[in-house]
Amino acid sequence: MAEQNLISRPRVLSGMRPTGKLHLGNYMGALANWVKMQDAYECYFFIADWHALTTDYADTTNFLDNSREVILDYLAAGLDPERSVLFVQSKVPVHAELYLLLGMITSLGWLERVPTYKEQLENLVGKDLTTYGFLGYPLLQAADILMYQPKYVPVGQDQVAHVELTREVARRFNHFYQLDGREVLPEPDALLTPSPKLPGTDGRKMSKSYGNTIMLTDPEPEIRRKLKTMVTDPARVRRTDPGDPDKCPVGDLHKLFSSPETLGKVYEGCRSAGIGCIECKGWAADSLVQILLPMQERRARYSNADAENILEDGSARARQRAEQTMAEVRAAMKLAPARQ
Q: How far apart are CA 196 and CA 58, in angstroms?
């Protein structure tokens, strides 16, 4: 009965590149939403190690270690390997096969117009990104998605264009190829998930590239140290100057993580200059510690060997599901079936 209920739930798929330990921005932008989905959806969440190669191909030294850190943070955040399929992209080799086949029908212009393609070319300075792999990464992402025939892809607004490309590719495939009169690759829908504004310690978007992150694994003293240096409302120069939490990055943290009571004290104290920024930052640190400490305790329950075993098991389950799709794709395209 449990398996029947699982199958009846709509399927979702999403993933992250293995950049090492995750930060609070990763949690609020994706992980927190994924955790909430586990009871309502059939969930596939993966580590996109091949995607990391599209920009970091020159140095793969830490890829395996980074994947292990990411799965540990997945588990720390509350992803459950009993309720979600957690896997590594490269451990499901047929992703590459579907990527190849979809490449035969995908227009070059579709890839060149993906917004993040030009943005990353401009922003990732110092790297040679004039590669086939970098141009094709949105199609690899489409193959990742279509492989599991999901109903939804949970994304923020900035990723909707990637889901739309995936839909276009599926539509074109289904135009050329069908299996017994039916479509093989259903067009997935974007499932817009909340992605609240989360500033880093310098006020910009939290990002490792800016060096402004609060890591999910940061111990309490490190959290408090980082918050002490966090920028505040620029209009509040002196302790006696009133401030505005709506114009303050620390205020943004309070809105996301503090209790209504604490938030009320922040608004009243800041606007009246009744509290100083140091006190306000201390309250924000208190709230973050309450959020992160349970994650860190959960993370500590898993050894590296546990993490690797979970990924092996999840990847085996993903391979089984992916091969079902590929058998249909090969049959629709009149290609030879895979050797058993």
A: 33
Query: What is the rounded CA–CA span in Å between residue 123 and residue 146?
Result: 29
* Residue 7: predicted pLDDT: 55
* Token output for 249: 């990055």
Domain assignments of the chain as residue spans, ordered by start:
2-197+303-332, 218-298
Is the domain covering 2-197+303-332 a CATH 3.40.190.10 domain?
A: no
Tell me what the pLDDT averaged over the chain comes to.
94
> What's the CA dihedral at 255, 28, 196, 29 to 10 degrees?
170
Tokens 């992803």 appear where?
A: 79
Report H helices in 125-197: 132-135, 137-146, 160-176
Q: Stretch 160-188: mean pLDDT, rounded?
A: 96
Q: Pairing between strand 42-47 and 84-88?
A: parallel
Q: Is the pTM of this model over 0.90?
A: yes
- What class, spelled out in words, does domain 218-298 have in CATH? mainly alpha
Q: Note the Cα 340 to chain centre separation in Å.
A: 34
Residue 63 has pLDDT above 60, yes or no: yes
For CA atoms 240, 242, 248, 252, the dihedral sign is positive
Tokens of 150: 């999901």
Given a cut of 70, whether residue 340 has pLDDT beyond it is no
Helix (H), strand (E) at residue 35? helix 32-37
Closest residue by Cα to residue 216 from 135, 131, 289: 289
More confident residue, 193 or 202: 202
pLDDT band at 158; cut points 50, 70, 90:
confident
